[in-house]
Amino acid sequence: MGLQQFERRLERLVEGAFAKAFRSGLQPVEMGRRLTREMDLQRTVAPRGTLTPNHFTVMVGPADRAHFQPIEAELLRELVGVAKEHARIENYVFLGAAVVEMATDPEMAPGTLEVVGEMRADAGGAAQLVLPDGSRHSLGAAPVSIGRLPECDVVLADANASRRHVEVRQSTDGAGGFVVIDLGSTNGTKVNGVGIHSHRLHHGDEITIGSTHLRFEAQ
Questions:
Q1: For 14-150, where are the alpha helices, taking DSSP H only?
Q2: Which contiguous run of DSSP H or E holds residue 27?
Q3: Which end of the chain is more exposed for a tag (fewer CB within 10 A), N or C?
Q4: pLDDT of residue 175 exceeding 50
Q5: Which of 85, 102, 103, 105 lies closest to 94 in space, CA to CA?
Q6: Which of 212, 214, 183 shows the shortest CA–CA distance to 201?
Q7: pLDDT band at residue 12 using 50, 70 and 90 as cut-offs
Q8: Which residues pair with 104 in a beta bridge?
Q9: ∠ at Cα 138 (143, 43), nearest 5°?
Q10: Are 127 and 216 in contact (CB under 8 A)?
Q11: Cα dist. 142→2, 32, 52, 134 in Å?
């Protein structure tokens, strides 16, 4: 989702009962602009690609935080989508999952905000997915969705991949490790060339999604 799409979705989000609160003062779309600017300012070239912040704190004053409260959860989800899409467009690499939080600064005046970005690796990041461009996505407690949708944790520019194709998550059978689960994709999912619905992953396994090959690595 680009900033224009983000702005259109926010317009629908604040219609009706909340519209009056957003006619003046701090506009939600400004958060998206500041967030992408923070990503650009803090980007750094590393062996694995161009790294950029993946963990963001949006600081606002008490009055603005109160205005945003009814839509805060949805707003933060939309901002995560903005970060993912901007990273995809600019070929940035995240060290871990994209996270956006909101915090209150009592000293901030109404209508002002600050966005602080950090590069944070996921806890338990010993397991990773290696993407075709060599970048890596750390695996932890949170499930990782993979597909063509901008809202997916790993977005694939692959016409043969479904919108939400697979999910990689920690195993729940007590043995630890990770499993890959096909989410009813159109073209199916393979591990090491064999079609699967759900499969426990082992170090070096190759996951095929459409025409895209990912490698699972675990230490």
A1: 28-42, 62-68, 72-90
A2: none
A3: C
A4: yes
A5: 85
A6: 214
A7: low
A8: 60
A9: 120
A10: yes
A11: 25, 24, 20, 22
DSSP, collapsed to helix, strand or coil, labels residue 29 as: helix
Q: Go through 174-184 and write b for each residue having 16 or more CB atoms within 10 A of its CB, e for each that does not.
A: eeeebbbebee
Strands 166-170 and 178-182: antiparallel
For residue 218, what are its two tokens?
A: 């675990």
Mean pLDDT for 130-156 is: 88
Length of the chain as a residue count: 219
What would you measure as the largest C-alpha separation in the chain, in angstroms? 58
**Which pTM value belongs to this model?**
0.59
Write down the residue that tokens 């933060």 correspond to: 76
- What the block records as the tokens of 108 is 């901030």
Which amino acid is residue 8, in one-letter code?
A: R
CB 2 within 8 A of CB 9: no
Distance (Å, rounded) from C-alpha 138 to C-alpha 123? 9
User: Token pair of 15, please?
Assistant: 């219609």
90-123 CB burial, b ≥16 within 10 A, e <16: eebbbbbbbbbebeeeeebeeeebebebebbbbe
Enumerate the H helices of 143-208 as residue ranges. Answer: none
Q: Is 41 helix (H, G, I), strand (E, B) or coil?
A: helix
What does DSSP assign to residue 13? Answer: H
- The amino acid present at 113, given as its one-letter code, is L
